Automatic annotation (TrEMBL):
Domain of life: Eukaryota
NCBIfam families: PPR (TIGR00756)
Residue ranges of the TM segments: none
Domain DYW: 582-674
Protein name: DYW domain-containing protein
Keyword Cell membrane attached: no
Each PPR repeat, start to end: 211-245, 312-346, 413-447, 448-483
Annotated family: Belongs to the PPR family. PCMP-H subfamily.
Keywords, sorted A to Z: Repeat
Database matches in Pfam families: DYW_deaminase, E_motif, Eplus_motif, PPR, PPR_2
GO biological processes: plant organ development; RNA modification
PANTHER family: (WILD MALAYSIAN BANANA) HYPOTHETICAL PROTEIN, PENTATRICOPEPTIDE REPEAT-CONTAINING PROTEIN
Length: 674
DNA sequence: ATAGGGTTAG
C-alpha cells in the first residue's frame, strides 16, 4: 500500500467519526493528510470544516470553505459559528446573510451564534429581523434558539435609545447588506426603543420547554438592569417550576444583595453555595468577595478569596478592589504585587481599583509606575483609569500632572470633572475649582452629590462662605440634589473655619434629618467604611516622605531613623537660621504642665519637621519636598516651614489630612487660612 | 445558549 492510500484511509476513518479527534494538534495533522490526498467531496470537506470550527480553528476552516463552489449547510453553519466564537461578529453575520442569498435554509442550532453576533454588534433591528426569520421557519419552539432570543432581548434591555450605539434595519431576506450597513454606520434607526420586559416575558411564555438556562438568562437580565425585585421574583418562580438555582443563578443574585447591603441574605446564598459545592466557583467567589466588601465585611471577602484553590484575573481584581474600597490600602497593594508574582496579567479594572490606594497613601512613585504600566498597556483612554489618575496625581501633590491628564481626556464625565475640581480644592485653588465647576455645567455634564462636596471643600479652604451658600441653595433647586449629611458637614465645617460659629450652629439646627434616611443603602455602607477607616487611624501623629522610591515614616519625637543624628543636627541648624529670620516658637497650642524649654523641644521634633529635615539632607539642593501628614499641620510648624522654604530656597509641599500647603519663599498657598 | 470585578467625597 502506498503512503497516500494509507493517508486516505486515515482521513476517511476520521470523517466517519469526527468526534474521535480530541485535540487541535490531531486536527492539524489530519489537515496535512487531507491536503496530500485531495480531492474530496463537498460533504467530506464540510465535515472537516465542522471539525476545525469545533476547535475554533478559523483559518483552516476558511481555507477549506473557500475551496467549495456551493457550500452545503454544514459548511456555512461551521463558518458562522467559528466567526462568532472567535469574535468576528460582523463576518459571522455577513456569512449568514450570504448563505440566505444562496437560498439555503438555516437549521435551529445556527441561530444562537447569529443572535450572539447581533448582541455584540448592538444591532437590535437586525436581531429582531432574525427573530422574524426564526418564526417564519417555525424554529421558535427550539429550546436553544429560544434561550438565545431571551439572552438577546435581555442584553438589549440595558441599551438606551440614542445611547450612542449604532442600529440599522434591514431584512434578512432582502439579500446582502453592505458591510457598513451591518455595523450600522448609517445609523438610521437610532431611536430604537428600549426593549420592554414584556418582550422577554412573551418569548419565555411562548417557549414550550424552559430549562435552567432560560430562567438564568431572564434573571441575569433583570439583575443587570436594576430590576432587582423582578429578578428575585423570577428566582422564586423558577423554584415553583421545580428548577434548582445553579451557580449561574447565584452569581446573578449576589450582586443584588451587595447593592442592598443585605449581608444576611448574602450569607444565606453563601451557605447554599457551600452546600451545593459551588463555593469554589470563580464567578460565585468574586460575587461573594464583592458582596462582603460592599457590606463592610472585608475579613469575609478575604476568607472567600483565601479558600479559592484557583484564581483567575477577576478573582484578583475583586479582592484588590474589596480591600481598597474598605480602606485596607496596604493589603490591596500587597495583593496587587502577589497578583503580578502569580503572573496574572492586570487588566483595566485592576488599575482603576488599585489607583485610589496610591492616592490615599500618597505613594507617588507607585502611582507613577502604575501610570507607566497603563501607558504601555494602552489603557490610557479608559475613563475609569484616567479619572483615578487625575485623582492620584492631585492627591500626591502634583496638581499640574492631574490637570494635564484631565486635559488629555477626550471626554469628561461627572466623575472626572469632580476629581479635578476636588484636586484644585485640596490644593487651595478655590477659584480654579469653581471655574471648572462652571465649565462642567456649560459642558452639559450634570453635577452629582459628590461634585457638590468638592465645591464646598473648595469654598471651605478659601473662606468663601457667600459662594458656598449660593451653591448650597442652587444644588437642590437647579439640579434636584437633596443636601445630605456630607453636604451639611462640609457647610458646617466651612462656616466654622470662617469663624461664623453662630451661623454654623443655626445651620446644623435646621438640618433635615430625613435627608439622611433617604440616602441609598450603598451610601450608608460607604459611610460605615469611612467611619471604620477613621477608627483604624488611632496611631499617633505621623508624617512620611518619599526619598529614592522609599517611604520614610516619622512620628513625633521619633529617634528611630538610622540617620537620626544627622536629622537632629539639621533641625538645630534650621532652627538657628529661621530664628535669624524672626521665628519665635508659638508654644500656645497643645500643652500645659510642660516648661518652655521642653515645649520648644517637643514642637521642634514634630513629625513633619523630622520628615522635612530628612528630606533636606537627603535630596539635592533645590529639589521640591513633598510630605504627607495624617493630621492637621500645627500653627507653629506652619510658620516654621514657611521660613524654612525661604532659607533653604526650596518648594515644600505638605499634604495634611484635609488639604495641601505649597510653601515657597516664606509664603504658603493657603495664605494662612486652613 | 446563561453568570463574576472598576473611577470622583468625607
Amino acid at each position: 500500500m502506498t503512503s497516500n492510500s494509507t493517508a486516505k484511509t486515515l482521513v476517511k476513518t476520521f470523517l466517519r467519526t469526527p468526534h474521535s479527534l480530541k485535540t487541535k494538534f490531531q486536527a492539524k495533522q489530519l489537515l496535512a493528510q487531507f491536503l496530500k490526498t485531495q480531492p474530496y467531496s463537498p460533504s467530506s470537506i464540510s465535515i472537516l470544516i465542522s471539525v476545525y470550527s469545533n476547535f475554533n480553528l478559523l483559518h483552516p476552516s476558511l481555507f477549506l470553505f473557500n475551496s467549495l463552489n456551493s457550500p452545503p449547510l454544514l459548511a456555512w453553519k461551521s463558518i458562522v459559528k467559528c466567526y462568532a466564537n472567535s469574535g468576528h461578529f460582523l463576518n459571522s453575520l455577513t456569512c449568514f446573510v450570504q448563505m440566505r442569498s444562496f437560498g439555503i435554509y438555516p437549521d435551529p442550532n445556527m441561530f444562537p451564534f447569529v443572535l450572539k453576533a447581533c448582541v455584540f454588534l448592538k444591532n437590535l433591528r437586525l436581531g429582531e429581523s432574525i427573530h422574524g426569520c426564526v418564526i417564519r421557519l417555525g424554529l421558535d419552539f427550539d429550546l436553544f434558539t429560544g434561550n438565545a432570543l431571551l439572552n438577546m432581548y435581555a442584553k438589549f434591555q440595558s441599551l438606551q435609545p440614542n445611547g450612542g450605539h449604532k442600529v440599522f434595519a434591514f431584512n434578512v431576506f432582502d439579500g446582502m447588506p453592505k458591510c457598513d450597513e451591518l455595523c450600522g454606520t448609517s445609523a438610521q434607526e437610532k431611536g430604537a426603543s428600549i426593549i420592554q420586559l414584556d418582550r422577554i416575558t412573551k418569548v419565555l411564555e411562548m417557549m414550550p420547554k424552559r430549562d435552567v438556562v432560560s430562567w438564568n438568562t431572564v434573571i441575569a437580565g433583570n439583575a443587570q438592569n436594576g430590576m432587582y425585585e423582578e429578578a428575585l421574583r423570577m428566582v422564586r418562580e423558577m423554584g415553583n417550576a421545580n428548577m434548582k438555582p445553579d451557580s449561574f443563578t447565584l452569581s446573578s443574585v449576589l450582586p443584588i444583595f451587595a447593592e442592598y447591603v443585605d449581608v444576611i441574605k448574602g450569607k444565606e446564598i453563601h451557605g447554599y453555595a457551600i452546600r451545593h459545592w459551588f463555593d469554589s466557583d470563580f464567578y460565585i467567589a468574586s460575587s461573594l468577595i464583592d458582596m462582603y466588601a460592599n457590606c463592610a465585611r472585608i475579613e469575609d471577602s478575604c476568607s472567600v478569596f483565601n479558600l479559592l484553590s484557583k484564581r483567575d484575573d477577576i478573582s484578583w481584581n475583586s479582592i484588590i478592589a474589596a480591600c481598597v474600597q474598605n480602606g485596607v490600602f496596604d493589603e490591596g497593594l500587597k495583593l496587587f504585587r502577589q497578583m503580578l508574582t502569580a503572573e496574572v496579567k492586570p487588566r483595566d479594572v485592576t488599575f482603576s481599583s488599585i489607583m485610589p490606594a496610591c492616592a490615599y497613601l500618597t505613594t507617588l512613585h507607585l502611582g507613577k509606575q502604575l501610570h507607566g504600566y497603563i501607558i504601555r498597556g494602552g489603557f490610557n483612554d479608559n475613563m475609569f483609569i484616567a479619572s483615578s489618575l487625575v485623582d492620584m496625581y492631585a492627591k500626591c501633590g502634583n496638581i499640574k500632572a492631574a490637570r494635564w491628564i484631565f486635559n488629555q481626556m477626550e471626554h469628561h464625565d461627572m466623575v472626572s470633572w469632580t476629581a479635578i475640581i476636588m484636586g484644585y480644592a485640596l490644593h487651595g485653588h478655590a477659584h480654579d475649582a469653581l471655574l471648572l465647576f462652571k465649565q462642567m455645567e456649560m459642558d452639559g455634564v450634570k453635577p452629582n452629590y459628590v461634585s457638590y462636596i468638592a465645591v464646598f471643600t473648595a469654598c471651605s479652604h478659601a473662606g468663601l462662605t457667600e459662594e458656598a451658600w449660593r451653591y448650597f441653595n442652587s444644588m437642590s433647586r437647579n439640579h434636584g440634589i437633596k443636601p445630605g449629611l456630607e453636604h451639611y458637614a462640609a457647610m458646617a465645617d466651612l462656616l466654622g473655619r470662617a469663624g461664623k460659629l453662630e451661623e454654623a450652629y443655626e445651620f446644623i439646627g435646621s438640618m433635615h434629618t430625613a435627608s439622611t434616611a433617604a440616602r441609598r443603602w450603598k451610601d450608608a455602607a460607604k459611610m460605615r467604611i469611612f467611619m471604620k477607616k477613621k477608627g483604624i487611624r488611632k496611631e499617633p501623629a505621623c508624617s512620611w516622605i518619599e526619598v529614592k522610591n522609599r517611604v520614610h515614616t516619622f512620628i513625633s519625637g521619633d529617634k528611630s531613623h538610622p540617620l537620626y543624628d544627622r536629622i537632629f543636627e539639621a533641625l538645630k541648624d534650621l532652627l538657628e537660621q529661621i530664628e535669624r529670620e524672626g521665628y519665635i516658637p508659638d508654644t500656645n497650642e497643645d500643652f500645659h504642665d510642660v516648661d518652655e524649654e521642653q515645649k520648644k523641644y517637643i514642637i521642634f521634633s514634630h513629625s513633619e519637621r523630622l520628615a522635612l529635615a530628612f528630606g533636606i539632607i537627603s535630596t539635592p539642593a533645590g529639589t521640591t519636598i513633598r510630605i504627607t501628614k495624617n493630621i492637621r499641620v500645627c500653627v507653629d510648624c506652619h510658620t516654621a516651614i514657611k521660613l524654612i522654604s525661604k532659607v533653604v530656597q526650596r518648594e515644600i509641599i505638605v499634604r495634611d489630612n484635609s488639604r495641601f500647603h505649597h510653601f515657597k519663599d516664606g509664603k504658603c498657598s493657603c495664605r494662612d487660612y486652613w
